Amino acid sequence: MNLHQASSKPHELLATHLEAKMQAVNTLIHDRMASKHAPRIPEVTAHLVDAGGKRLRPMLTLAAAELCGYQGPFDVHLAATVEFIHTATLLHDDVVDESGQRRGRPTANLLWDNKSSVLVGDYLFARAFQLMVEPGNLRVLDILSNASATIAEGEVLQLTAAQDLRTDEAIYLQVVRGKTAALFSAATQVGGVIAEAHESEISALYDYGDALGIAFQIVDDLLDYQGDSKATGKNVGDDFRERKLTLPVIKAVAKADTEERAFWTRTIEKGRQEDGDLEHALVLLNKHDALQDTRQDALFWADKAKQSMSQLPDHSLRQLLIDLADYVVARIN
Amino acid sequence: MNLHQASSKPHELLATHLEAKMQAVNTLIHDRMASKHAPRIPEVTAHLVDAGGKRLRPMLTLAAAELCGYQGPFDVHLAATVEFIHTATLLHDDVVDESGQRRGRPTANLLWDNKSSVLVGDYLFARAFQLMVEPGNLRVLDILSNASATIAEGEVLQLTAAQDLRTDEAIYLQVVRGKTAALFSAATQVGGVIAEAHESEISALYDYGDALGIAFQIVDDLLDYQGDSKATGKNVGDDFRERKLTLPVIKAVAKADTEERAFWTRTIEKGRQEDGDLEHALVLLNKHDALQDTRQDALFWADKAKQSMSQLPDHSLRQLLIDLADYVVARIN
Lengths: 333, 333
Description:
2 copies of one chain form a homodimer. Chain A has 333 residues and is mostly helical.
């Protein structure tokens, strides 16, 4: 990570490069989140859509399509599709996690109710499927419907695996592929598919999205234990308090002695937490180099993302995507 | 309704006629509800799928396809798609309605939790989209993705309209088209589309499903006020207690004097119900012929369904679908 990259945030450079297309995506999103009959739908959706997320996923689709020479209009539809799927999963996630805050604002389930979040999420999923049908490309439909199934499967797996100390790194990776990487990889892959790129390029775009998504989620899970809450918008230890078995804890559990294992069993599996437990968890994480090792894993995946870009045409967007992979892990560097 | 029809239940005759295909549908459903990684998914799904529902919607798809001369294998995929969408909406409905019972058994949200119902529902939606992509027919995808959006929109509309005394018969019809008729009409329409039927036939199949679905839901709402709980599996007055503004009450509210309006405002809008309120509600419904008029509406829609069949080829299945429309309203005759 050099100074130039650090000072010019790649996701902002991407946004500038893709500005015209992203405006079309935003217009389409606002157009399609409307509902003639049920005003609750755009109300709830706008609360999330206008909350100032980075729109990383739709930008990945647009960037992949342009990188592979796409000239048509449907990258906009697919980018909006990807953002709708993402928004729908956020609505349902907040219900499942009983969250009260997202991006520093109260969640929709708190402002309205769980019912609205469930049903408006369903509506956005359906809108996503309507949008993805419009380009008339069956392979795109195949990729996005498979990604949707992987996302939901990952979420269900997380339900049962999150508080189970037997969850190992392989299961963690499956969960992460489901909850995060599947949509990243579908977002980049469909960009290549509508551009009719070579198979090797489409495959490299998939690899990039997959690795970037995994790096992104590992960073998120790491920051939960060592982040600066002002910068991340999250409180240190949220995952611990919510008894989520993420990579740092999985690594510490794998090296735990009997007494330490009893601590994790009590705090994560049984959820009987006391004052001082988070501090003790941090001691154990540091004792076993779990945070350091987790950081190494994030860097490994970011590097994998960057390497996959070597298959793609030389283009300013290629460099931006490489820089983006660095940027994703810069928060922990 | 003659004696022959009454004694030979059309949905059972349909099931017999479509037995081989329905076995293929059931095999496909069980195959696709599996999950390599998350055993919670087939557990929750099986609880609903194996609960002994009538499988009316998939039978409508198979019947429509056969009636229009379809010979290929994809009617089975589309029938399974329709059943998956239906199952997913049931899972989410039970969360939204906070239901404890369905088809005389505890609901999934009670046996597991709301989280599992939300996420397994999402998984089944995604599986439905995977299945519907397989026939490779873009018009089918268009119809089913539109139906999914209409279903979700109807559910959200119901959220806000159900306890609002300004809800009139037009809004009720929109809700009913969303929550019930949209899937019926999509089920019949896609059967005609994959059979490459004439446009007039496809349109008639849509009309049949739409009218049958509306009749079906009106009957359901009527039986809530005058059904035999042993036969229906529901308790009289459930909708009243849950403050759902269905057609009988909408009709009574439209004719209410000031005092009666105050009663509906208190019991439905404000939900401050007391002993004897259900009995008084029934008095008001009868005073204004609301149950009788609701019954007439159900018969009107059943008749409309039957009439639309005149556009379709003469075939034993056509008669079965006509009889099915009679059967749907037979419960209130």
